[in-house]
Structures are given as structure tokens and as C-alpha cells.
Design brief:
single chain, mainly alpha, 65% helix
């Protein structure tokens, strides 16, 4: 979509149309039938969860670093990352 927007800034298109236009009429990458551009609602929920975690974890670490120390926090995070 970014390449399509760069080439045709005033035009609007679906994902399938932009792929076809950017490829300049060549066959689509899959080549197995029509392009289906369906975005499921779960994608937005997952992005919201990831965004909230990306905000919460640094804030939590910032509060914990004063209480348990830099080296202890780093070693605990390393230990958590290796657990199954």
C-alpha cells in the first residue's frame, strides 16, 4: 500500500488493486485465484493488546528499578525470558 500511495498519491484502491497496480500487470504473488482482502476484527484486538503491553512494561520496569535495583531487575527479566 505504501508503494501504491507513493506512485499514485491521489488515488484510492483496495489491497488487491494496489498489489496488481504496483506489480504493473504481472501476475499476483500467489497466482492461485482472486485476491481476498479481508481483515478480521481479531487483528485490531491483538494490536490493542500489544500496544497496551508496550506501554505497561516500560512503566512497570521504571517503577521496579528504584525498588529492586538495576542488576536485580535485569537478572529477573532474563530469568523470566528463559522460562518455558
Amino acid at each position: 500500500m505504501a508503494k501504491f500511495s507513493e506512485q499514485w498519491p491521489e488515488a484510492s484502491a483496495t489491497i488487491c488493486q494496489s498489489i496488481a497496480d504496483v506489480a504493473r500487470g504481472e501476475s499476483l504473488a500467489s497466482g492461485d485465484g482472486p485476491c481476498v482482502a479481508e481483515v478480521k476484527e481479531r487483528v485490531f484486538v491483538n494490536n490493542l493488546i500489544i500496544g497496551a503491553a508496550s506501554l505497561a512494561v516500560p512503566l512497570l520496569c521504571g517503577m521496579l528499578v528504584n525498588k529492586i535495583g538495576k542488576k536485580n531487575l535485569l537478572s529477573k527479566q532474563l530469568g523470566v525470558s528463559f522460562k518455558d
